[in-house]
Amino acid sequence: MRLLICGDVVGRAGRKVVCDRLPRLRESLDLDFVVVNGENAAGGFGITPKICAQFFEAGADVITTGNHVWDQKEIVPYFGKEPRILRPDNYPEGTPGKGVGIFEARDGRRVLVLHYMALLFMTPLDDPFAGIERVLTRTRMGRDVDAAILDFHGEATSEKMAMGHMLDGRVSLVVGTHSHVPTADAQVLPHGTGYITDLGMCGDYDSVIGMKKEASIERFRKKVPGPRLEAAAGDATLCAVYVETDDATGLARRIAPVRLGGRLAPTMPEVERVSAEA
Ligand SMILES: [Fe+2]
Ligand SMILES: [Fe+2]
């Protein structure tokens, strides 16, 4: 299976690069399944139902979020209607929506998507390590699903790496999100799980993690509340990883970064088309 996971989309610039590029990426990389992290898509803060519809239209199969999930109030009831959007699963019992789902890839194969928030320097939620263990005792790759992807939304590189190794050999892919800066450590771990500590954002990199730099600098320099943070509006870079899984085991055979547009050096994996669809 061929998977693409796009990092946190930030503001209008991020939405534009994703909506412009994703339909062609689905074709050129012959993708079976696409996840987009949309937690900052609405001006840097949260996501709206209208933006979700644009991402689905552009080719996202599932939208993940993070600590900014509730920033736009109108998204709360949407979680009751749209199963293809996930919030971190380790929010307390009774929180709207879900953080785990089984979805269909292009040809009907089943993909488990897990979305959890890390704990270090983040909102204190339930233990993500224990939560994921519980899910994986019920749902096993190779038996119940054909691929499994974790979007682990967190600040600390160590926590994300520990999670990757805990799940090595049991899921197809572990990606970190939230830091908005892509890491250069994309690799297939020793037991076959694709891993990257952070995907980076889909946003304008002439910024402070996607927000206009002047206001952000002010906030760091002055210890009084500064100007409102706004999403940077220059050309955005789409940051993602491309993963090929083994059809028999669900494990990753290959992982490669994708960067397109904007200021970061571009990179795009070479792929051979396998599907019959042109
Ligand atoms: Fe984010
Ligand atoms: Fe976040």
Could you characterize what this model shows?
The protein is of the alpha/beta class and 278 residues long. It has a single domain (2-260), classed as Purple Acid Phosphatase, chain A, domain 2 (4-Layer Sandwich). The protein is 22% helix and 22% strand. It is built from six helices and eleven strands. It has helices at residues 11-28, 49-58, 75-78, 128-138, 157-166, 213-221; strands at 2-6, 33-37, 62-64, 100-104, 110-117, 147-153, 173-177, 187-188, 194-196, 238-245, 252-260. The strands form two sheets. A six-stranded mixed beta sheet has the order 4-5-6-7-9-8, with helices on one face. It has a five-stranded mixed beta sheet with strand order 3-2-1-10-11. Helix 4 links the parallel strand 5 (110-117) and strand 6 (147-153). Helix 1 runs parallel beside helix 2. The protein is globular, with a radius of gyration of 18 Å. The mean pLDDT is 97. The site of one fe (ii) ion (FE2) has 6 residues, from loops.
